[in-house]
Amino acid sequence: MEQHFRSYVGGQWVDGSGSHTDENPADLATPVGRYGVLDAAATAQAVDAAAAALPAWSLSNPQQRADILDFVGSEILARKEELGRLLAREEGKTLAESIGEATRAGQIFRFFAGEALRIPGEKLASTRPGVEIEITREPVGTVGIIAPWNFPLAIPAWKIAPALAYGNTVVFKPAEIVPGCAWALAEILSRAGLPDGVFNMVLGSGRTVGQALVSHPKLDALTFTGSVPTGRALLKQAAERALKVQMEMGGKNPLVVLADADLDTAVECAVNGAFFSTGQRCTASSRLIVESAVHDAFVERMQARLAQLKVGDPLDPSVHIGPVASGAQLETDLSYIRAGHEDGGELLAGGARVDCATEGHFLAPTLFAAQPSHRIAREEIFGPVAAVLRADDYEHALALANDTPFGLCAGICTTSLRHASHFRRHAQAGMVMVNLPTAGVDPHVPFGGRKASSYGPREQGRYAVEFYTTVKTAYIAP
Ligand code: UN1
Q: Which residues form the Aldehyde dehydrogenase domain (predicted)?
């Protein structure tokens, strides 16, 4: 029987209206399931439920919260193959990548189980004799979570887990094309021992459900990962009502390859960073900035390596690159390939759709030699399309790396300690990778960027406490 995915509001499963297809991007003839969507009124009920559950939950025993998060993380880890399979069918990344993502999601829940018992505070002396000062952290309140489709388990995990650990209540709105993964997470959370209303999950469009969430007066904070235009629009609304926000938006991440790099390492970093997960990562290496002396050798090796990669069914273990996640994203990718040609780029690999046994959104990994002014070298594409840019020397490469409105991640491949250290200091990005792909981050350390990529406090690790709590300064006289 086909699965039907529902929303979860105030401890109840809610159908919503309509029956929309949850597409399998690798096999359009065999959908993953169907789902109903909520309207604005039902979304408002979810925020009301979260607000009603807040007073008790915000004062709950941290051990209770730790036990609940540990239950969720442990179940995700125990079922990682099955959840990974659902993820691969719904989003299209390969089964190995999907199981890796499920593992990451489980680890994140378990990390924050521990953090629930480690909420930091400080005690300081006052400038007034006899007075003591105590600085503590309290939950920020009801938290709205708007998540993207490209990591449909891990990104919700790294927002939901800290929100609950620090005593907040949650309304989680997943991206529309991944209702199955959202439902699977909600289903586990619904059995974890949370009081009704502490966690809610609302399916539907950004225009209706997202909008109703953000404009609800009882929402205290909003965390968003997605595109720059959506993030900026949400930011404006949030500013009008002084909502606390955290935004992770786009990237146009550079990977610099210097003449002294180990070329095998550089090619592996570039292939992984630019094309794995079908290039659909905000941390993807979409600008490969290569020092002139090794440019042609690097391009040749990339071409040889890309020719070995198999595009196709993400459940087939011999496949390296799954389909593009949706028809809309495929259209965007193809329009950027046209822009690459129009702007005068030289196609080095790929550039077209791939025929497979099933009808799906398959696209060949595409590499262009481009100029820094070309659209494919400036705008985020969010697909398996990367640009190679030629640099005269290290200084030129660094200038090109920083010549972007974005600042999420920056990578360098080099065997020179001097250049690696200089790059680490001068790359204008929230994360720097040396001899590693720009994408693929650890679950327990801060994640986030600068410039147009991010706004507000960092996510993940102990730094997540900044966003999910508010500080109280108490003065105590005897
Ligand atoms: C990673 O590169 O491991 O949307 C994580 C994204 C990021 C997550 C990337 N927020 O691609």
A: 13-473
